[in-house]
Structures are given as C-alpha cells and as structure tokens.
Design a protein that fits this description.
The chain is mainly α. The protein is 73% helix and 0% strand. The chain contains four helices and no strands.
Length: 96
C-alpha cells in the first residue's frame, strides 16, 4: 500500500494533488470491494472443503492468471500515451 501511495504522490500534478489523491483513494476502495466480491464468487465456483483440496490448484491458477492479465489489459486499454514514446531529445528538455 505504501509504495502505491508514493507512486500516486509522484505522478500527481502539482496543482491538483489533493484531488488526485481523493480520486485514487476512491479507485483503491473500489478495487478492494471488487476483490472481496470476486473472492466470494470464486469460493462458490471452486468449493474447497477441509481435507479435500482437489479444487485448490485450479483456484490458485485462476486467481494468478486474473491477477496478472486483468491489470495489463486495463493499462493497455486506458493508457493515454499508448504508442507515443518521446524522443530522447524531448525527454532531456522536459526534465530541465
């Protein structure tokens, strides 16, 4: 959680830090709520009982795949700078 807050602080525009933090906190809460709902649904699909762990491997693989694929797809879909890489000269001038 702390690295994410540091990343948000670094990426926030200087004149809109409070608004940016509020929006990111709202998205974080939304993600946690979705995670809890997803957990309930996965527990209904993959029934794991004490002493019978036949479904555990499938559950772990499903969660790992969704945990890796979903964020990558989201970034690719909603990244406004997709395909626009600044030239080296533009990068050095923007940092000055």
């Amino acid at each position: 959680m702390i690295p994410m807050l540091a990343w948000i602080a670094h990426e926030a525009p200087k004149n809109q830090k409070a608004t940016y933090f509020a929006v990111m906190a709202a998205f974080t809460n939304l993600a946690f709520s979705a995670s809890q709902l997803g957990t309930k649904d996965f527990n209904k699909i993959f029934i794991i009982e004490r002493g019978s762990y036949n479904e555990l491997g499938k559950l772990m693989i499903s969660v790992a795949v969704i945990g890796l694929v979903l964020p990558v797809i989201t970034v690719l879909l909603f990244n406004p700078k997709r395909g626009k890489r600044p030239r080296r000269q533009e990068m050095t001038q923007s940092r000055i």
